[in-house]
Design goal:
The protein has eleven helices and 16 strands. It has about 350 residues and is an alpha/beta fold. The chain has two domains: about 170 residues, Medium-chain alcohol dehydrogenases, catalytic domain (Quinone Oxidoreductase, Chain A, domain 1); about 140 residues, NAD(P)-binding Rossmann-like Domain (Rossmann fold, 3-Layer(aba) Sandwich), CATH 3.40.50.720. The strands form three sheets. Strands 3, 5, 6, 8, 15 and 16 form a six-stranded mixed β-sheet that branches. It has a six-stranded parallel β-sheet with strand order 11-10-9-12-13-14, with helices on both faces.
Length: about 350
């Protein structure tokens, strides 16, 4: 199989690797499309993802959709032809795999069969992300399911959304996901702080106001959206130093503060302690369970409340050989995300 491999920091290549072989609880998938994650994929290519234990070379990609082509002997809940989320190639031929989505073949696990057969939770819980999509789902658009599920789980764990006023920091793919989800879940108003290049796009997505992250006066003017009490929820989709502190005066007493982004992870985790001491309800990075939001995200996609076209054009995928161009398109703000056709 061919796969997109980060050979070393800054070096991305297409390699031919050994085909994966499914185990008893696994399915083999033909990888159809993969989404470009502006933060994680870029940081992995650059060698700057602030998470320990990452080694190179590695197979890139964690937002892929695969079609089942072979099932293991103990698989009961997945079948040939199913579209499955978050499948990917395993480590092979000296390459690590950060989910390994950008490979022509991948693996997924029947976590429900493993659970029901009494296997230890540690062996299957990470694979609750391997979920079946309804027949007829567009697999290119469905690459957004990973972003939608993560942010949906994070948002709903932070607090009730209906009737609330939210402030989103960051105008990237995750920031827009929080915006779209908040509107879909009945938020009273959502304001965004981000790059002004995305201001019109945010208005189209339903933002009540937009402020340039460099303009302190414009940020202060978001008080008109917050109302007298202040914003009820804050979602920091980026995690830059000082981002949350710069808008705390706009928040209601006891508001929910969510640090989702990890740009300055170590410094931000220490800062959260001081923010908590001020009486805010604080959630840190990783406080979500992607699999738990699958059914709700699928329903929102089916209803049209979530539409991949807000992030990219699903009809214009990049071929795997041009994955570097897809990464560049996102970095250059040509689209919020990009989709890569892996096979087919």
């Amino acid at each position: 199989m061919r796969a997109a491999v980060v050979e070393s920091h800054g070096v991305l290549a297409i390699r031919t690797l050994s085909d994966p072989v499914p185990g008893p609880y696994e399915v083999l998938t033909q990888q159809l499309f993969g989404g470009i994650c502006a933060a994680t994929d870029r940081h992995l290519v650059e060698g700057k993802l602030p998470i320990p234990g990452i080694s190179y070379p590695l197979i890139l990609g964690h937002e892929a959709i695969g079609r089942v082509v072979e099932v293991g002997a103990k698989v009961r809940n997945l079948k040939a032809g199913d579209l499955v989320t978050r499948t990917g190639a395993p480590a092979t031929d000296g390459c690590a795999a950060y989910w390994g989505g950008f490979a022509e073949l991948g693996l997924g696990r029947d976590f429900a069969a493993m659970r029901d057969d009494g296997l230890p939770e540690a062996e299957w819980t990470a694979h609750t992300i391997n979920r079946v999509l309804p027949p007829g789902t567009d697999p290119a658009s469905a690459t957004m399911m990973i972003t939608w599920r993560e942010t949906l789980s994070y948002l709903t764990r932070l607090g009730p959304v209906s009737g609330k006023r939210l402030l989103v920091l960051g105008s990237g793919g995750n920031g827009f996901s929080f915006l779209a989800l908040a509107r879909a879940l009945g938020a009273d108003a959502v304001a965004m702080v981000g790059n002004p290049a995305w201001a019109a796009h945010a208005a189209h997505a339903g933002a009540a106001a937009f402020a340039d992250y460099r303009d302190t006066a414009a940020i202060a003017n978001l008080r008109s959206v917050a109302g007298p009490a202040g914003f009820d929820l804050l979602l920091d989709a980026v995690g830059h130093t000082g981002g949350i502190e710069g808008v705390l005066s706009l928040m209601a007493p006891g508001a929910g503060i969510g640090l989702y982004g990890i740009e300055a992870l170590g410094e931000r985790m220490a800062a959260l302690k001081a923010i908590t001491a001020q009486g805010f309800r604080v959630h840190g990075p990783g406080e979500y369970a992607e699999g738990e939001a699958h059914d709700q995200a699928v329903a929102l996609m089916a209803s049209g409340a979530l539409d991949a076209r807000l992030w990219f054009d699903p009809t214009k995928p990049y071929p795997l050989d041009r994955i570097g161009d897809a990464l560049a398109a996102v970095a250059n703000r040509e689209s919020l995300k990009a989709v890569v056709r892996i096979t087919g």
